[in-house]
Predict the 3D structure of the following.
Amino acid sequence: MITEQVKQLGKKVCEYLKMNNILEKSDCILVLGSYDERVAIRASELYLQGLAPLLVFSGGFGKFAKDNWGEAEADHFAKIAIKMGVPKKNILIENQSTNTGENILFTQNLFHEKGLNLNSFIIVQKPYMERRSYATFKKYWPDKKVLVTSPQLSFEEYPTTGISMERVINTAVGDLQRVKLYSENGYQIFQEISKDVWDAYEQLVALGYNKRLIKE
């Protein structure tokens, strides 16, 4: 059972990782693949609201996609968008990437092949991956403007069937570690982490929320 203390610590970490950007019209909506179909729904809604004329889905065969969808994340998400009314001609698919860095680099390659030179992006990801997605994008595409968003759900609302609160907290702890380590290793731009957020991280790790940590 998750205690109230753990919930409050998890919320502090997740609120740091969610950037809460105010969106504006951009050249492209770039959707980073995952197991959460609500990411595709959020991106499609933004397209249908007129936030950008192009919708790009990036993501290959993650374990969940292999086991449950039998197709790449980008292909599965694109089908959701088309079902919601996004014209197929305004969708691009990059279905080979396996991590956030590849999402950006392989999308760059796709744009090069298509002769596209776009300047402003809205990235759509899971809430607790907003900051890492931003930091990775700015590392590999520093001259482009980027805003980040996610399904509009609070920390308490986000868990759903198949995505438990325990999983959310474990993943958020792992993502916060990556915000720190990946910038040190040159994979992301630096993002300042306040002492209270890092203290919450350390408390969660001590309490056993370490399932998604990488070895330093």
